[in-house]
């Protein structure tokens, strides 16, 4: 019994252990089964079930680029907007059928089969197949739904008006950075914010967006509305190109501005380039990218007499009817200054000095002013410093000031008629605009407003300084009307009073240390209607070979554009306008 | 004792298993939902890109140089001389000073000026105001 009982107890214990073991195995099996199901479910969701549409995923990749802010003219026409190209990359080590991929991609990417095979070597984890492919190519590749081939959109700036306002707009390079002009100046504003690559884990090079932040979406850059008018800009560019061709000139610049606000209506330079194809400009012609209106200086010649006369009138050293005996020469700082025609004009008034553009007379005014007062007004009118326009690459110009090592007293004479002083076209027009605007110097600007969703930042016209009194400005305007009627008839428009001044500047050749004996810069700065100006325009034609004179070359261009501007700016004739007051 | 210990271990494992399952289940749901959101955002971005492409095409077709080429092709000739014609009763605006249009052509990216903005009316309201003022001027000009 004892034996049996012992045997029975052992049997019982063994059976219980076996039962417990079986239960444990069963439960472990169940748990393993559950875990396997969970793993399978996870795999299905993250690899198959939850994966985005392959075509969509390919076209959009893991990163979405933010749109760069567009640029519009004052009427809402697009001057710069966005299109896209695609960067095509591959993960060759996960491509299942490399040969098939090579067969399909070779013609689409315009790559030889050998080159493509080298790129798609299965040992490589990454390969750049094409930096910039067209939308059509990208769509064709997306349709193939090849595993391990990725398309990433890359922003490409498009300028639908082609060359129009190229110098002013600048361009966006292949790295999506703005260069020159507005694109350069407002680059940080225009750039949006790209979406960061989200997700906590990576599988098959796809981010699994467990921690995907829907708020972290690309932010579109704000758009710019310019003061520029597309139609005026086109008109100005066309007439500038015609003038350069007609007078066999080398280049030219025209700026149109509203003198009351400083708003730029048009700014054109010739020759120009197409910002859509900036990369086709050869290295030796990169100078084309520079905007001559703000980034290149020139000696303005007789247009500068406006500044000298303004200083003379404001300080009271002369009045419009003050007389001066013009003997044909004047000595300043030991140098003899002549009139452009090398003639003596006898007794002349200040009006005559501007009308006949007499160097001797205006040098007389500057000597009456003295160097201190003359250069004070030169500075007041904004020469020798940036105007502050919202464009990339503006320069200060160059004014030799008394006291500096390279200044001599003859500069007081030559500077009075715009020689020996370097200014930008924008500085020149801004200074004359102050006379048109009753003596108030305005800061020029191009961006009228920045629109960022609900937020609109409007540029307010900014007065820099009252450089001369309204009375002096009015007197000078009368004198400039007279100057046009007697010295620049070709700038006149019937039924409108035009105030303006011609300039025929000699060109200094630094390499030779002297002025070019033949070539000139012909220019004209004028505003209209003279006593209630809607626009001011500077026409500058460089090195015209057919005729050197501003009155013959630049003044007619002013007239042609002004005639159309009166219509475009809805400006009735003086007779009607004054009668309606 | 062994059976009790085994039972405790199994209980702990079961609880851990259930918690793991809940955790994975939630993670999967979040992932699926976020995939869905991301897909839609990507789709939106793709549509936006297509829209941009179409807009660029439209604006290129409407560029001034192309319009000029087309008109020349139709036999029109450039104007040699332009004269502003004065019409009795017409009140001209000041085009150079009028506030610029804040909204792009074709109505994309429409923006709304701040409510407290006291700027001049733009777009249709400005046009309507001008029409009304011109009509009033015309009626006054009639004998």
Write up what this structure looks like.
The complex is a heterodimer of chains A (about 575) and B (about 140). Chain A has helices spanning about 1-50, 55-60, 100-110, 115-120, 135-145, 165-170, 180-185, 185-190, 230-245, 290-295, 305-315, 350-355, 360-380, 410-415, 425-435, 470-485, 550-570, 575-580, and strands spanning about 70, 80-90, 125-135, 150-160, 170, 180, 200-205, 205-210, 225, 250-260, 265-270, 325, 330, 335-340, 345-350, 440, 445-450, 455-460, 465, 500-510, 515-530, 535-540. Chain A is α+β, with helices and mostly antiparallel strands. Chain A has two domains: about 60-195 and about 215-225, Penicillin-binding protein 2a (Domain 2), CATH 3.90.1310.10; about 230-580, DD-peptidase/beta-lactamase superfamily (Beta-lactamase), CATH 3.40.710. In chain A, α11 crosses α13. Chain A is elongated. Mean pLDDT of chain A is about 90; it is low at about 50-55 and about 200-205. Chain B has two domains: about 1-70; about 85-145, no CATH class. In chain B, about 60% of the residues lie in helices and about 0% in strands. The longest helix of chain B has about 60 residues, at about 1-60. Chain B is elongated. At the A-B interface, α1, α2, β2, β9 and α9 of A face α1 of B.
């Amino acid at each position: 019994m004892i034996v049996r009982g012992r045997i029975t107890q052992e049997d019982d214990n063994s059976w219980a252990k076996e039962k417990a073991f079986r239960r444990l195995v069963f439960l472990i099996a169940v748990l393993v089964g559950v875990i396997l199901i969970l793993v399978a479910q996870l795999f299905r969701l993250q690899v198959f079930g939850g994966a985005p549409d392959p075509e969509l995923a390919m076209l959009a990749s893991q990163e979405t680029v933010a749109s760069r802010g567009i640029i519009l003219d004052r009427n809402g026409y697009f001057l710069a907007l966005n299109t896209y190209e695609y960067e095509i990359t591959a993960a060759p080590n996960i491509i299942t059928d490399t040969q098939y991929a090579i067969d399909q991609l070779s013609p689409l990417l315009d790559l030889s089969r050998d080159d493509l095979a080298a790129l798609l070597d299965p040992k490589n984890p990454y390969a750049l197949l094409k930096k910039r492919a067209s939308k059509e190519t990208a769509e064709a590749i997306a349709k193939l739904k090849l595993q391990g081939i990725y398309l990433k959109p890359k922003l490409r700036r498009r300028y639908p008006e082609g060359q129009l306002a190229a110098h002013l707009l600048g361009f966006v390079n292949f790295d999506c950075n703005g260069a020159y002009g507005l694109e350069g100046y407002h680059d940080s504003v225009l750039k949006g914010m790209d979406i960061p690559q989200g997700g906590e884990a990576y599988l098959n090079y796809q981010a699994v967006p467990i921690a995907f932040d829907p708020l972290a979406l690309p932010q579109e850059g704000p758009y710019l509305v310019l003061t520029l008018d597309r139609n005026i800009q086109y008109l100005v560019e066309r007439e500038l190109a015609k003038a350069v061709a007609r007078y066999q000139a080398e280049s030219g610049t025209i700026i149109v501005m509203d003198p009351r606000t400083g708003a730029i209506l048009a700014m054109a330079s010739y020759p120009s380039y197409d910002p859509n194809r900036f990369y086709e400009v050869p290295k030796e012609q990169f100078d084309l990218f520079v905007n001559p209106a703000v980034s290149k200086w020139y000696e303005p010649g007789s247009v500068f007499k406006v500044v000298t006369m303004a200083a003379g009138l404001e300080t009271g050293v002369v009045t419009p009817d003050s007389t001066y005996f013009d003997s044909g020469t004047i000595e300043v700082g030991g140098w003899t200054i002549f009139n452009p025609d090398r003639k003596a004009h006898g007794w002349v008034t200040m009006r005559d000095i501007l009308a006949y553009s007499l160097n001797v007379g205006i040098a007389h005014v500057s000597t009456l002013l003295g160097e201190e007062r003359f250069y004070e007004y030169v500075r007041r009118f904004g020469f020798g410093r940036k105007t502050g326009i919202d464009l990339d690459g503006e320069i200060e110009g160059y004014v030799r000031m008394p006291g500096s090592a390279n200044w001599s007293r003859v500069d007081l004479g030559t500077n009075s008629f715009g020689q020996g002083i370097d200014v930008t076209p924008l500085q020149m027009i801004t200074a004359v605009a102050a006379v048109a605007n009753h003596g108030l110097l305005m800061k020029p600007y191009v961006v009228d407003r920045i629109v960022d969703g609900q937020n609109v930042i409007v540029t307010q016209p900014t007065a820099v300084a009252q450089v001369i009194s309204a009375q002096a400005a009015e007197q000078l305007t009368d004198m400039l009307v007279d100057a046009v009627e007697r010295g620049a008839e070709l700038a006149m428009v019937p039924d409108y009073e035009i105030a303006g001044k011609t300039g025929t500047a000699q060109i200094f050749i630094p390499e030779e240390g002297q002025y070019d004996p033949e070539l000139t810069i012909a220019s004209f700065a004028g505003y209209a209607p003279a006593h209630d100006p809607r626009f001011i325009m500077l026409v500058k034609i460089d090195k015209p070979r057919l005729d050197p004179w501003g009155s013959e070359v630049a003044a007619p261009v002013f007239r042609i554009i002004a005639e159309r501007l009166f219509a475009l700016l809805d400006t009735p004739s003086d007779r009607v306008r004054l009668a309606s007051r | 004792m062994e059976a009790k210990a085994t039972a405790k271990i199994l209980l702990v494992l079961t609880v851990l298993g259930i918690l793991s399952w809940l955790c994975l289940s939630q993670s999967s749901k979040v992932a699926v939902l976020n995939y869905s959101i991301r897909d839609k955002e990507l789709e939106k971005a793709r549509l936006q890109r297509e829209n941009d492409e179409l807009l660029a095409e439209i604006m290129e077709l409407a560029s001034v140089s192309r319009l000029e080429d087309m008109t020349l092709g139709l036999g029109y000739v450039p104007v040699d001389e332009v004269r502003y014609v004065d019409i009795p009763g017409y009140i001209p605006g000041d085009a150079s000073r009028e506030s610029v249009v804040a909204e792009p052509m074709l109505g994309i990216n429409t923006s709304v000026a701040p409510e407290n903005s006291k700027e001049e009316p733009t777009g249709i309201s400005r046009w309507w105001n001008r029409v009304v003022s011109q009509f009033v001027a015309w009626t006054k000009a009639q004998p």
